[in-house]
Specification:
8-stranded mixed sheet; Rossmann fold; 8 strands; alpha/beta; globular
């Protein structure tokens, strides 16, 4: 299990307890990058299975309020922790983007046998895009929430990488402030724990090894055939505006791109009720 200390660790453990009480089982799935943790719950609805992929330095538990709001209408919800994140285990060797994607693919293949609506947030969006490109037959639809994965300029790429080089609680507070539509009062208390996560091997390995060449090409994005929803909050302050422009240019014409007011980089924090309603409506519009 990834070691985190202080308030952020307590929040994670408390969030898992709440999710377990709401019917979300904790699974342990062996992959080539170690044992991964995932939440799995069945709901009363008849929608396609919805899978949620979180961002760099975050965890599936962060989706807790969102998942709880979605469950009453969902058929099945699955939310894994990436390697070295949340309650997933550690690994041997370096966690490159290739190994990261391989581990996520192994987990999805092992846990989800049916076609799914794959939802990716931030780094999870980049992973979801790649999975959609390599395994399109596995997806009923693709939803992207402030996704990484756009090919930016080299300068923007380096500036983004620098954002995740966190060595102090003050830098962690600055990063936290960029995740929200309105920064909540308690972020200062979470900053030390986030600093420790961002200094950990999982984040440093992935960001150290990632290059622009790891990202999908414009032609490959345009070939995606499944239904696509992209949400990019008007208060996005982490990813460059050119990323949204890139997706507008290169995703296929049938992709629905929305810029909701009141959403920042992490709308599952800003307004989980409204995000849950939009994702459920999207899932209702597609066929399993």
């Amino acid at each position: 299990m990834t070691k985190k200390i202080g308030l952020l660790s307590a929040v994670g453990r408390g969030g898992r307890f709440v999710l377990n009480r709401h019917g979300f089982r904790s699974l342990a799935v062996r992959t080539a990058a170690g044992t991964l943790h995932a939440y799995d719950a069945r709901g009363p609805g008849h929608l396609p299975t919805i899978v949620m992929l979180h961002g760099l330095g975050s965890a599936a538990t962060a989706f807790g309020p969102l998942l709880i709001r979605m469950l009453p209408q969902a058929g099945r919800l699955v939310a894994p922790d990436l390697p070295g994140h949340g309650f997933s285990g550690t690994w041997s060797g370096r966690l490159t983007p290739e190994r990261l994607f391989g581990a996520v693919s192994e987990l999805l293949d092992a846990v989800v046998g049916e076609r799914m609506v794959l939802v990716g947030s931030s780094l999870g969006g980049a992973l979801a895009l790649r999975y959609a490109l390599e395994r399109p037959e596995r997806l009923a639809a693709l939803a992207l929430v402030s996704p990484a994965g756009a090919r930016t300029t080299p300068r923007e790429w380096e500036e983004l990488r620098d954002v995740f080089k966190i060595d102090s609680a003050a830098e962690a507070r600055q990063l936290l402030a960029r995740l929200y539509h309105r920064t909540p009062w308690y972020v200062a208390a979470l900053a030390p724990g986030l600093r420790d996560i961002m200094k950990g091997a999982a984040v440093r390995d992935v960001m150290g090894a990632a290059t622009l060449d790891d990202l999908p090409t414009p032609d490959s994005l345009g070939a995606l055939a499944m239904p696509i929803l992209l949400l990019w909050g008007q208060s996005e302050r982490l990813l460059p505006a050119s990323s949204l422009a890139y997706f507008r240019r290169h995703l296929p014409e049938h992709a629905v791109i929305e810029e909701p007011e009141g959403f920042g980089h992490s709308p599952h924090f800003d307004d989980p009720t409204r995000l849950a309603a939009r994702l459920i409506a999207f899932a209702k519009s597609v066929r399993a």
